[in-house]
Design brief:
Low-confidence stretches: none
Number of strands: 8
Structural class: alpha/beta
Strand content: 5-15%
Distance between the termini: 31 Å
CATH architecture: Alpha-Beta Barrel
Number of helices: 9
Largest sheet: 8 strands, parallel
Strand order of the largest sheet: 1-2-3-4-5-6-7-8
CATH topology: TIM Barrel
CATH superfamily: Metal-dependent hydrolases
Amino acid sequence: MEEALEPDLPICDTHHHLYDEQSVFYGPYSVADLRRDFGGHNVVSTVYVETQTGFRPSGSLLSMAPVGETEWVIEHTAGDDLIKGIIGAGDPLLGAGVGDVLDAHIEAAGGRFRGVRFRESNFNLPTLLPGWLLGPELQAAIKELQKRDLVLELFGLCTDLPDVIRLARSVPDMPIVLDHIGTPVLPHVDPRLAHLTWDEVLDRWRADMRAVAACPNVVLKVGGIGMTVVTDPAMMDGPVTSESIAKFWGPDLRSLIEWFGPERCMFESNFPFDAGLCDLVTLWNAYKLVTQDGSPAERAALFHDTAVRVFHL
């Protein structure tokens, strides 16, 4: 394992998960495991993001099932103050009805609930139809988030970016956090990309991300590059190290930071999901290498300050 670079640089990890024994995504992963994996990096706060762990059992009201995850996080992190914010799950098809779910999340979170993540992979909730990002249900749900000063987080694939752009333009006063640099996935992952090469996927993704960056209400989570659907380690030149990751992804990550600006970018680990590429110490080292030419103020925003402002930590 690498040694942590710049161990004094304050970090807010804006995106990580925890899992229980029943998770279909990952084995048990606790806040103690997360602290261990940070190694020598100075992670002073984090934002937990839903992974549909701890949902209330199927006998419960389906719309309220996601509140069980917030309850689970509070229970399983008792006595540990690392997690300063929680992004929960909800069903965007509820429209205005999601307000009751938000209130239940807020009550369960003890002051740490910061918003919801809506995503196309709506596991354990009603199936979303194509075009759901532009439907009236989501517009109504957004109004409920705005009433409560909560953040809307989105996770889709790069093929969803045109709809993300239309959505962002339709609700200019709604803060939207886009996960995983817009998730440029390998061509075999999405049938809509099967006819393209990886370079062609990236070219299309870059063009769409420049358009997303032109929407001032969108903040970008810079990360998710460790997911196996995004980065095949075999594409790297030699062993996976912080240097090789920075060489492989650095030009695109720096372009994104230039387009959005550091005040609308914040790094994320997406751990333990991004462990498919490397360990957590190596990942944060790579982000530090990518930004090593940035000013102290720019790097403070990227690693900590933007997250604190956006999530009201």
